[in-house]
Write a structure and sequence with these properties.
With 177 residues, this protein is an alpha+beta fold. The chain is built from six helices and eight strands, in the order E-H-E-E-H-E-H-E-H-E-E-H-E-H.
């Protein structure tokens, strides 16, 4: 069995309710094992015989849409990948601390070098962007609500992405990495 850390995009916001107890039940009923969730934003640990990330993400997206009636973009990482994302975040934060926050957008696939450069080129005063593998780090020296760069801007270049703050990424890496 493979262990996966799964991040759901845009659940429990904007009328897209997916209570974590119902999410855990749907996953367990579908045959996934060791299902755990962390807070209400769609962070899940599970085991599956599926070894292909793409196949797992597709299967979960089909399951979630059937269960909820709306699409739920899903990004899956191995525990080792999650640990690497948290380690990269620590290095970036130590080298260039963010005054207002550090956010991480997780994407489905490692972007091509040209696309990574396009995303990093979105950086501006108070908004620094770094692509590290399947994670896009946004370090803000301004309040999040005033930032011009957002998860939506990243998605326009890299496709579906889901965003978490550094506190959540760090907590999950310590818990499940």
């Amino acid at each position: 069995m493979s262990t996966w850390i799964v991040f759901l995009r845009a659940v429990n916001v904007g009328g897209r309710a997916y209570p974590m107890a119902e999410l855990r039940a749907a996953l367990t009923e579908a045959g996934y094992g060791d299902v755990e969730t962390h807070i209400q934003t769609g962070n899940v640990r599970l085991t599956s015989p599926v070894r292909s990330r793409a196949k797992l993400e597709t299967a979960l997206e089909v399951l979630f849409e059937a269960d909820r009636g709306f699409s739920v973009a899903t990004v899956a990482l191995t525990p080792g990948e999650l640990t690497r994302v948290a380690a990269d975040a620590t290095v970036l934060a130590e080298a260039s601390p963010a005054a207002y926050g550090h956010y991480v957008s997780l994407v489905k696939a490692t972007p091509a070098a040209a696309d990574a450069k396009r995303v990093e080129a979105l950086s501006r005063d108070g908004e620094r962007i770094y692509v590290r593998g399947r994670a896009v780090h946004l370090l803000l020296d301004i309040p999040y609500g005033t930032a011009k760069v957002s998860n939506a801007a990243i998605e326009k270049i890299l496709g579906p992405a889901t965003n978490r703050n550094l506190k959540v990424i760090t907590a999950l890496a310590e818990k499940w990495g």
